[in-house]
Amino acid sequence: MPQHYMIGTDIGTTGTKSVLFTPNGQAVSKALIEYPLHSPEPNAAVQDPPQILAAVLNTVRQVMAESQIDPAAVLGLAFSSAMHSLIAVAADGSLLTPSITWADHRAAPWAEKLKQAGGAELYRHTGTPIHAMSPLVKLVWLRQQQPQIFQATARFISIKEYVTHALFGQYWIDYSIASATGLFNLSRLTWDSGALEAAGIRPEQLSTPVPTTQILSGLKADLAAQMGLLVSTPGVIGAIPV
User: Fold this and answer.
1) pLDDT higher than 80, residue 242
2) I want to staple 28 with a disulfide (CB 3.0 to 4.6 A). Which of 20, 36, 158, 199 is the partner?
3) Exposed, middle or buried by CB within 10 Å (0-12, 13-18, 19+), for 35?
4) 18-76 pLDDT, tens per residue?
5) Are 169 and 218 in contact (CB under 8 A)?
6) Helix 108-116 / helix 135-145 crossing angle, nearest 10 deg
7) What is the largest CA-CA distance in the chain?
8) What is the pTM of this model?
9) CA-CA distance, 198 to 177, in Å (whole number)?
C-alpha cells in the first residue's frame, strides 16, 4: 500500500507551524516561521495578514521539501488558528485594517458599555464573554472610533478566513472560530441577530459558518506551486487547537 500524509497548519499569534503527518499521527517533518505583533498605539496588538499568509505558504513548502515526498501522497491540508482576530475587507478585496488580534485591548471601554446594555443576554446566546478581545466588541469599537473604515467594509473576517480564502477562494468560517466571535448563536449554529444588531453589521458581511470537517477545494494553482502541492489537494477547514 502506498504511504499517504496529511499536513496540519497552525496559524498562531507568534508564528505559523506546519507539520507533515502520517495517517496514524506520526510527525514526519515540521517547519515554523515566526512573525511580530505590532503595537502602533497604546493597547493595540495587530499583525500583517500577507506576512502570515506567506508563513503558511513557506512552512508547507519547507515540510514538502524536507520530506521529499510525492505531492500526490498528500491527502490534504487542515488548519487551526488563534481565536478572536478581526480584519476589515473592502468590496474589492483590499484590506482596510491589519489583523486586530485577541491581545488588542483598545475596545475595553466599549466592552463595559456593552455589558450595561444587554451584555448578559448576548453572552447567554453566544457563549462568548463581553470582553475587548472578542470580535463583537472590536466591531462596536471600530464603528464608534473609526467610522470611515467601518462604513467602507464589505466583510469582516478572521486571520484564518483570510488564509483559507486566499488559498481556496471561499469565505467560510468553522463553527469553533465562529463560536469565539461573540456573534454566533450556539444553539442555532448561525449568526445571532441580537449580536449583529449590537455590532451594527449585516449577516452577509460575515463568512458562511460550516462544520470543522468542511472540505475545501479549488486550491489556487500559483499558491499550490509555491507550496509544492498539487492543485487537486483538498483542505479541511479545521478547528481551534486544544
Assistant:
1) no
2) 20
3) middle
4) 999 998 999 999 999 999 999 999 999 999 999 999 999 999 999 999 999 999 999 99
5) yes
6) 100
7) 62
8) 0.96
9) 19
Amino acid identity for residue 153 in this structure = T
Q: What is the pLDDT of residues 116-175, one digit of tens each?
A: 988 889 999 999 999 999 999 999 999 999 999 999 999 999 999 999 999 999 999 999
Contact 140, 198 (CB under 8 A): yes
List all residues 6 or more positions away from 112 whose beta carbon is below 8 Å from its beta carbon.
none
Distance of alpha carbon 7 from alpha carbon 67, whole angstroms: 12
Element (H, E) at 44: none
Q: Would you state the pLDDT for residue 119?
A: 86
Is-contact 52 38, C-beta < 8 A? no
- Measured CA to CA, the distance from residue 179 to residue 236 in angstroms comes to 18
State phi, psi for 101 to the nearest 5 degrees: -85, 175
Q: Quote the cell numbers at residue 118.
A: 444587554
- Single-letter residue type at 15: G
CA 125 to each of CA 130, 165, 185, 188, 214: distance values in angstroms, whole numbers, following the listed order: 12, 28, 5, 9, 24
DSSP-based helix, strand, coil % in the chain, nearest 5: 35, 25, 40
Domains assigned to the chain: 5-236 (3.30.420.40)
